[in-house]
Specification:
mainly alpha
Length: 205
């Protein structure tokens, strides 16, 4: 029994010794630069939270106001992408935390901001996150394909999140339950809390 146990450990050690080094950005290696651009935002929690929060904010204001983000958000990503190469991987943690806090507070307060302000917020956020994604590009990455993938996923996330929020909240005329509005505002409170914690961590470091 002990002999079999030792043989098992030896076989496992040999397998581990023969393993090669793991390659970074395996998405690009297997799927190409377009899908790397489409999947790269999902590797950063700040992208996931901020993009979702922006879509929820737009949906909470109604489809007539939020539809402008379908164009403004992907365009902001494309504008910000080359800035990441120019300015490098400079940390924008405090700015991201501030945006997260601001969007969360607007959701929690059910603020009725004008369409122009909503578009400005979404465009500025998209420029910041586009630059953050662009800072991670390698020299061999096809930037056109990466930008196309990033813009497509930005369009998809904003559109779907906004549409789901509009459908979830409903309208006053169809007798939608008031708890749905409360749920959206509670989500805004959680987003603001996350932004506040992120800002505290950045300032403390």
């Amino acid at each position: 029994m002990k002999l079999k146990f030792r043989r098992g450990w030896i076989a496992a050690a040999l397998l581990l010794a023969q393993g090669g080094a793991a390659e970074a950005h395996i998405v690009a290696a297997r799927l190409g630069d377009f899908y790397m651009g489409a999947l790269h935002p999902f590797t950063d929690l700040q992208d996931v939270i901020l993009w979702t929060a922006t879509g929820v904010l737009a949906g909470s204001l109604g489809a007539s106001r939020g539809r402008w983000l379908i164009l403004a958000f992907p365009l902001g990503l494309l504008v910000g992408l080359p800035l990441g190469r120019i300015f490098g991987a400079a940390s924008a943690g405090l700015a991201d935390a501030a945006m997260m806090l601001a969007i969360g507070l607007m959701l929690a307060a059910a603020a009725r901001i004008p369409t122009s302000a909503l578009c400005a917020i979404a465009f500025g956020l998209a420029v910041m996150r586009g630059a953050a994604n662009g800072a991670d590009l390698g020299p061999d990455t096809d930037r056109v394909l990466f930008a196309a993938g990033l813009a497509c996923v930005g369009y998809t996330i904003i559109t779907l999140t906004m549409a789901l929020t509009v459908v979830f909240r409903g309208t006053e005329s169809d007798g939608s339950a008031p708890w749905r509005t409360i749920a959206v505002r509670a989500l805004g409170g959680w987003i603001a809390a996350i932004g506040l914690m992120m800002a505290s961590i950045v300032l403390a470091s």
